[in-house]
Amino acid sequence: MKKRVLKNRSVRVKMTLMLIIIMTSVILLSVLVNLTMLKTYYTEKEKKAIKESYCEIQKVFKKDTVRKNDVDEIAKKYNYRIMINDSTGQNVYSSEGEKSFMYKNLWNILNNNLDRISNEISKQGYAVMTNSNKSIGTSINLIGYLEDDYTVIISTPMESIQTSARLSGQFTMYVGLVLIVCGAVAMYLYSRQFTKPIEDMAKAANQMSHLDFDVKVPTGSDDELGRLGNSINELSSKLELTISELKTANNELQKDIEQKVQIDEMRKEFLSHVSHELKTPIALIQGYSEGLKDNILDDEESKEFYCDVIADEAKKMNRMVQKLLTLNQIEFGNNQVNMERFDITEMIQNMVEASKILVEKQGVQIIFDEPETHVWADEFMIEEVVNNYLSNARNHVTDGGIIKVSYCRHGNDVRIKVFNTGDHIPQEDIDKLWVKFYKVDKARTREYGGSGIGLSIVEATMKAHGKDYGVANVEGGVEFYFDVESADSESVQC
Length: 494
Description:
By secondary structure, the protein is of the alpha+beta class.
């Protein structure tokens, strides 16, 4: 449970708690050291000091007399109890007075420990010991000899040492508590300098995980956190670039997949339409050829008719195949657009003259009266567009009607329009005219040998040129149009 609680804390709180734990441990250790070792340290220091006082007494002590004033100064200096006896045991000096309670106890200490410490005294002239007494408590005592067998006893109570050690421990504890509180507050406030950059990095990393790379980590320092922030920002930029590249590649792949699917669908559609369109002429050719083979006809005129039908159907099949090949080349980019400047009027004029011959029996009038006009385009591809528009007009114009080819300015382009009198195209069929093999009137289309491919060629050609095209029902008939880039500066606006 404790681990879980600590785990859910913020870094700021964890740092503060860690500081409190460390400081508390250090203070408790200090108190423990004071309680266990400080007393021993003070005792050893006191023993050293009591030896120094003994040496000073030796210096001021004379053979015949004791300078009481000098001994008093030493007793006051060290705050010791001092008693000096002569060789007979007679007291010659006592800092406490001869009749005092302390005097009697010091004398008892001398008598009770003389045998025990005699060896030590004989070696160095003095002995230091610790004694406990119910009357005076625990004390440190030095028993030593002076000149002429004089004896000196120096004593200091242990109570002051114990008190000093206790007070030192208490002081350490109180100071430690203050330091813990102040240190915890200081750490909590100061740790913001460390946790704030970490929080910014965590925020940036979280947004990066959601593919948001707009947030950047502030990097104002040159320490480890600053360098880490720079690394995260650099990582964010590289990830954004990489993801962008991946998205681009994915889009290209998606386009390739869609194109592949589209090509497959076009292939299936192409095979379906081709098989359907070729079924009738093949059947006719097969039927009439078998008739000729079986000699079911007796007269030459019928045979000639059979041959004409076969030749006509073969011609339609050839024309359709040629158109399919042209459309395929344009749609799949095999037929590259070759831009050149040419006179479109001359080209159309030649095609109009050829069309007049084909519609003379219908009493159709073809009108074309446009000045010399130059354009930028692929001449052979544009010729195919015009040919398909004229062919469509010839097939749908009413007897005694009009076919008119005209120009007008459309922005920077020249718009070529082919009009024919006749019935309007149903609105629901207009957008379908450009679909391969689509026929508004199938019976009529079959009559003139149409394949439904011509307008698809127009669409593919104009898309390859990047120009507009279309059809509209107008007063008196139908008008097809397409745009080519103008190479002349002047022309009539549409």
